[in-house]
Amino acid sequence: MKKIDYTSLDVRLLRMFISVYDCQSVTKAAATLELTQSTVSHGLNQLRQIVQDDLFVQSGRSITATPKADVLIDKAREIIVAMQDFATPEQYNPMLDTSTFTIAASDYEIETIIKPLLKKLRVQAPLSTLHIAPARTQSQWANLLRSGEVDLVLSPTLDSSELDLVQTTLFSDREVCFYDPEYQSAPKTLAQYCQLPHAIMSFNNSQKTDIDVDLQRFGAKRKIVASAPNFSALASLIKGTDIIATMPSKLSESLFKEFAQTPAPFEVPPFEIVKIWHTRNRNSQRHIWLKNLIE
Fold first, then answer.
1. Rounded Cα distance, 198 and 226, in Å
2. pLDDT the model gives residue 87
3. Helix or strand or coil: residue 228?
4. Which pLDDT belongs to residue 22?
5. Each residue's pLDDT tens digit, 26-83
6. For a FRET experiment, which of 18, 41, 156, 200 has its CA 20 to 30 Å from that of 128?
7. Considering the domain boundaries, does residue 1 fall inside one?
8. Are 137 and 280 contained in the same domain?
9. CB of 56 within 8 A of CB of 7?
10. Is there a contact between 291 and 94 (Cβ–Cβ < 8 Å)?
11. What share of the chain is helix, strand, coil (3-state, %, to 5)?
12. Count of domains in the chain?
């Protein structure tokens, strides 16, 4: 008998084999599978060549399984079940999850998003752990997601056309001027604003932010005297000084609650905070659950 590579075995042949075994009839099996009798007979012949056994032999007006068919039937059923499991979406139960959720965020997103999220996780996924990866520059977010180091990134909108990254908006905010009212007063004009000492938040020692780009449109430039790598350090740095900081307004509810605030004396466009993930997680039930938990 000609030997055929086992890789020619497929689910279609196994289903025919199981049906013929259960029905003890090619005709009945064909009807059950909604196939023609010749198709089932041809499939059985293929399977016979693969396993090198007759599988079924004539017994009066019916057929009977060979000893090898009796051995193979349970294996065939197991393969079908395994294939079904392979193609069935995972069933995720957050109450049983003992893994770590890793989210990249700055302390701004920690204050506005992560703190409420942690409360939900402790109730809905009590065995899990939350890890906050340090904030990076926008150019580094994509690599974090592609490497699998983080599950999600929370940040201002990525200025990127990366096709393997997906981002959806969570909320909008606008930057305002924060100052210590015991040492400084609110700038009323653009000229006053630029003359005052400023502190900025900078990951990489850059002395230019989006605010400075906006000022260039008005032909203006401010005086930057200090920078810090995160918002909490910046708030601590300028407290008790005459330095002002132009920061997201939602920080007035947390890190900058001890400061006075005023709108910037020039037009500052709003910005959006987004959640970003890699497309490989599009169908992950665990990942979908986490994304839906973040509002």
1. 7
2. 76
3. strand
4. 86
5. 998 888 888 999 999 999 999 998 889 999 998 877 889 999 999 999 898 888 888 8
6. 156
7. no
8. yes
9. no
10. no
11. 45, 20, 35
12. 3
User: What token pair was written down for 36?
Assistant: 């023609």
- 89-93 long-range contacts, CB within 8 A, separation 24+: 89/283, 89/285, 90/284, 90/285, 90/286, 91/285, 92/285, 92/286, 92/289
- pLDDT of amino acid 82: 83
Residue spans of the chain under pLDDT 70: 1-6, 88-89
Retrieve residue 222's tokens: 């401010």
Q: H or E element: which one contains 223?
A: strand 223-228
Alpha-carbon Rg for the chain in angstroms: 32
> pLDDT per residue over 140-154, tens digit each?
777 788 888 899 999
Q: Find out whether 228 and 234 touch, Cβ atoms under 8 Å.
A: yes
Question: What domain range includes position 60?
Answer: 6-87
Q: Do 108 and 188 lie in a common domain?
A: no
